[in-house]
Fold these 2 entries.
Entry 1:
Amino acid sequence: MSEIILHHYPTSPYAEKVRLAFGLKGISWRSVYIPMIMPKPELMPLTGGYRRTPVMQIGADIYCDTLCILREVERRFPAPSFYPDGDKGLAHAVTWWAEKSLFDTAVGVAFGEMGDQLPEGFLKDRGEMSGRELSAARIKSARPILVDQLRAQFTFLDDMLNKNPFLLGKQPSLADFAAYHPLWFIAKNCAKETSPLSEYPRIVEWMARMAAIGHGKATPMKAAEALEVAKAAKPSLAASNDPNDPGGRKAGQRVKVTPSEFGRVPTVGEIVASSADEIIIRRMDETVGEVLVHFPRAGFIVSPA
Ligand SMILES: N[C@@H](CCC(=O)N[C@@H](CS)C(=O)NCC(=O)O)C(=O)O
């Protein structure tokens, strides 16, 4: 099997979710650092436009979004499972809440504290990505409102920990990885005295159990080498149709796949396979040749190219 390559940067919460998931599975992987803001010239040949972090590469197969990345990781490394008690639906429902609500609130609180210390160009980039004008003054003034919201959501988490060491039971599940990374970002960037976490010792103990999972074994790789790996690999996947596709989409059709929220840059290609959960498109790139780009269906819009 080709090596697992993660394109990421150290301070990315979603990348931390995947790094810890690699830790649970005991995976050895290659680590390529990408820029935190655009441009990302050595990522674009792989994704064809998708800019978010992280991206996983296995040969010439490119997995965008952690939903898609962890699904593939579970398929290749089933044990220990991300669904140890079989509560797959519940784990995904908690994940959706954690990443659609808790994440933005937590990151807003941390950014509100970091304010003027955010790296040069960061607010401009994230403003363009989200279609909102962001300034240090604005994010600082939003912080108190967000802290109130965060406390309320921390109470949900605290209640989930009242019986077991992890959110859904005795072992960590996908739900833990999804809820942990927004809080990891708070813990890293908020001073102890101002951290909304200090009120919740049970959550802090759970975070220590999560951190102890570790990251597996990472070995650095240069972005140029990852591009060579994609170029040398031959993606192979038999075309298949989704018989229930509501839009009647078929393998071979050209489509664009676009994130529905932030960073709405489309990736264009030809459908190779699709289902209710995932769509895989083939694209030809002048730098790396043929690549298959995998996206989840949840949170992505598929439209004719
Ligand atoms: N739904 C995506 C969200 C990923 C995401 O928002 N990542 C942040 C970094 S933690 C990002 O892309 N920021 C902009 C960037 O890195 O260019 C996923 O699950 O992978």
Entry 2:
Amino acid sequence: MKTVFLPHAEPLRILAVDDDAAMLRYIHTLLELDGHRVSTAVSGEEALALLRGGLKPHLMLLDMMMPERDGMVTLAETRRDFPAVKVVMLTGVSDTHQVVAAMKLGAFDYVTKPFRKPDLDAVIAMAQEKPQGPIETVEELTDDLYFLAASDATRKLREQAGRMALVDVPVLLLGESGTGKEVTAHLIHKLSSRAGKPFLKVNCAAVPAELLESELFGYEAGAFTGAVQAKPGKFEQCQKGTFFLDEIGEMPPQLQAKLLHVLQDGTFSRLGGRTQLKCDARVLAATNIDVQSSLQNRQLRADLYYRLSALTLQIPPLRERKEEIPLLLKHFMVRSAERLGRPILPVSPAMLVACHEYSWPGNLRELGNFVKRYLVLGDEESALREIRGLTSAGQSAAVGGLTEGGVAKPFAQDASEAVRLARALEDSRWNRRVAAEQLGLSYRELLQKMKQHGLTSEPDPRVQRTSAGR
Ligand SMILES: Nc1ncnc2c1ncn2[C@@H]1O[C@H](COP(=O)(O)OP(=O)(O)OP(=O)(O)O)[C@@H](O)[C@H]1O
Ligand SMILES: [Mg+2]
């Protein structure tokens, strides 16, 4: 007789879900033999009803192929509403594609059917071993700014940020547009000993080159025409605080040299001033450009880069941590509904799946904006249509990129191109370089297409910024 040896194994509460009654009985018998407490459900609906009714299984064994609400959809809903439940998918051998999707959606593991006792034992042992750990943590950084971590990748990022917070040297934050560089900078500030002091930021791409220097370092009266009164710069205002230099790659090279100097000896002077001022701000810098190529074309000074990059944090794109999508959707929904003073709308299983299939080139910002649009329009059908349209547009764009045909596009496609351009621009806050990258176009091509579709940039933020700043 075979002895089943489960080292320090606590019996688990297990919910088995399968439309096949014989399969359910089989699982039930196998698991109860080992002392687990087993509940069963014959459909996704029933499983979710049990969870809503207060059943708290450690583990859910979930059949992938069920009529009506299939396993994938049930998985998505479980991840959204009961993230503490570890879900193991029961799949057919040929479901590779679906297995991959399920794992990305946050399934704990999978077992292929037909399976035998040892297969089941292996996943259960894993579920017992792997400590539960926090499924999601949300930290409020400032008013309306949150850091949510719901994947291993983001938890690791959170941990690294925590360690970097303790060392008082610059950090370079790298990552695509909308991945959370600014949020992470806030997080580092909040976890550092400078937390009670100011967090100031300058976006080097949004301030015109000729104003950037005075914005950073301030000026004395008479330093230039129009400088009637002396004005301190951001560095000076950032006493003992953290200074976030966003889009550092857009800083003019001479100014990069001046910044390097400040980082090296900790002093600077206002424009037109002689007094040496002490800089005691910690600098965090961010960029979404490709560092290697901007070093090569000297857009980014190598000496500044090496000074800034002793500590580097690379923030992964959303498509590499898709298991966070259900929780992020819920997070954005709750926060945006609150802010907009609107009722929370349902995030349906169909929506979860559609969101999961899309690649989110604009990352978390795009997802957040999508939720806002859905909230404002209040119409799930059109939200679904939008996201599915983007998914297939992305797919056909990828194909088009390969064939590179010069065929004239029908009007409808043309219109959707305009929409895609507009969205990419909006999601990158009209940063054309970033938008072009997202769209897989060259900068020049994007400008051409913008002209062709009559897309002009929103009112120039520079104009607003400088006039409002006075
Ligand atoms: N970990 C996170 N948890 C919750 N919200 C997040 C997280 N990361 C990013 N966000 C949200 O996503 C949006 C974009 O984040 P952020 O502005 O930090 O991106 P970014 O990398 O600085 O983008 P860009 O390069 O375009 O400036 C913000 O609305 C932010 O609140
Ligand atoms: Mg940013």
